[in-house]
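Narrative of activities, Objective 1.

The group set out to show that a structural description can be obtained from nothing but a protein's sequence at a throughput compatible with the screening campaign. Below is one input-output pair from the validation batch, recorded exactly as produced.
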Amino acid sequence: MALSPDTLPTTHQPAAPLAQQAEERVQRSLFGEILDWMLVPLLLLWPISIAITYVVAKTIANQPFDQALDDSVMVLSQQVIEINGKVATRLNGPARDFLRADDIDNVYYLITDARGNIVEGDRDLTIPPAIAQEDTAHPGTVQHRDAILHGNDVRIAYVYVDLRSVAEVNATAPPRTALVQVAETLEKRARLANAIIKGVILPQFLILPIVLALIWFALSRGLSPLSELQQRIRARRPDDLSPIDSGQVPEEISPLVRSLNDMLERLSLSIQTQKRFIADAAHQMKTPLAGMRMQSELALRQTRQEDVHRSLQQLAKSSESATRLVNQLLSLARAENQSQENAPFVQRDLSEFARGVVQDWVQASFTQRIDLGFEQAEQPLPVMCNPLMLGELLGNLIDNALHYTPVEGRVTVRVRADGEPGEAQFAILEVEDTGPGIPPAERDHIFQRFYRILDNSRSGSGLGLAIVREIALQHDAHITISYNPHSSDPELPGSLFRVSLHLLKTAKTDFH
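Output recorded for this entry:
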């Protein structure tokens, strides 16, 4: 369905209760949240860092001592010889003393032949079964193992020595080997590892408080623009709704400032609208109130019964006009504030609903001698609506049509779909009359509050169509205005108000 440029689209979203919003709102500290995300990983990774440092320190400490142990076992293996088929050594007393010379760690050695017989060394340094079964096909390769000797942890380097001569090796004779082992306690290794750990960990204990203080200072300094922005906003006058200068805030806060400026702009526009509304309402109320006062004073000065009666009739008319104005002001306020309340939207059949509203205006049409008609749709047209507000919308359109239609004129309320059954997207509500019509140049302004067409001599508050517009906005409805296509009088072209509401795709079987 094509809509004219003066279509009025909007969306309606019922607001949640303020109490429910207050319950769902959870206040969080940005400073505390950032601090948590920085400190929690830091405090979790710190013990892991200590453990990794300890493992690395032990590995670093083992490397030089393992190398020294390898050198010792290789030097000792060079002293192993074979004499008359038996394994022997060329070690003398000073060599043995040098091998054991260590002020901190105890050093042990053991030399055994291929059958496991001890040739020389500490008998407590026995050959575990795992070593006795080692593959001896590659002698000369130093290997390591850990063991316990005399109740102390020791590190053992061992190597198999090939006792064959060069000629026997070339002739691929079976290997004859001897096992050389050198063991060393781990005190020097532990001292070096502890020294490395202390050298790495102790500075961390000193650096960690400094890091925490720097993080605290950096967060305080980084969030200081928020505090400054807060102070600047608090220092403003209550009536100062000017935009906040976004050039004095960091780039990350600029979107927030722009959003605040947009909100201030909307708030300023809302306050200006309210001020204008109050001023216009006060101005409009002056006329009927002044008329009522004048007529009452005039009635008090009259002595003839006919003059008093005439003054009382004028007083009743002024009172009726004031009552109508107040009721429309209240209706407009209710329509504007309806979106802030928990307004119930229910499904209704637009045809049956409109029929009920039209029936309420039949007596008024008889009084004004105007033919009020109703044309119902051929099929049900289910829509979602606030019945109270939608009834107010249709009632104001009918009231407006009756008010501007001359005696013996016609007002027709029509409900139809915008297309064939099953294909329609909108339910159309039309109110047409045979009044003077609305010129195209005025159609963009008639929905403004208190707006009156200049050459219109009819009395009115100028609020009825403003109420219609507000209710249409709440229902996401479109309004178009045109001349009455069924009018044949050029002096009275009439008006056609068309309201398009979204049609529900799946209709329920019962309508409220």
